[in-house]
Design a protein that fits this description.
- With 122 residues, the protein is mainly alpha-helical.
- The protein has two domains: 66 residues, Orthogonal Bundle (Arc Repressor Mutant, subunit A), CATH 1.10.10.10; 43 residues.
- Helices cover 63% and strands 7% of the residues.
- It has five helices and two strands, in the order αααββαα.
- Strands 1-2 form a two-stranded antiparallel ribbon.
- Helix 1 crosses helix 3.
- The model has no long low-confidence stretch (mean pLDDT 94).
């Protein structure tokens, strides 16, 4: 996970997304412990409150949970939750815009599918 201090997204959002990415790629498995707030703040040279804010987002979404006195862990079913969340975001941010532009250009569904297949082949 990397933090980009030049990125327009807040650092706490980058922390949350970085942990989400690590869960999706299997770097943090379900029921596995994730780095502590202190570890995150030291490793990325950020304020612990900023790291906590990123973690709090994931706790609120049920992606991670706290075991009192032990640390934070990836919740059971988190991978499926994250995939569904990211698929919906993908649709909202990319597919809707792609379809709007395709309609303006008169591109058919079949042509879009051909372009997508070509993209996967490249």
């Amino acid at each position: 996970m990397q933090i980009n201090f030049e990125d327009e997204r807040p650092i706490f959002m980058q922390i949350a997304e970085g942990i989400e990415d690590a869960i999706l790629t299997g770097a943090f498995a379900e029921e596995e412990q994730i780095p502590s707030i202190t570890e995150l703040s030291v490793n990325y040279k950020i304020n612990p409150a900023t790291a906590l804010k990123g973690i709090a987002i994931l706790v609120d979404e049920g992606i991670i949970f706290k075991k009192r006195g032990i640390g934070m862990f990836v919740a059971q079913g988190s991978v499926l939750k994250l995939r569904n969340k990211r698929k919906e975001l993908f649709y909202e941010h990319y597919i809707k815009r792609l379809i709007e532009e395709a309609k303006k250009l008169g591109i058919t569904t079949a042509e879009i599918l051909d372009m997508v297949e070509r993209g996967y082949e490249e």
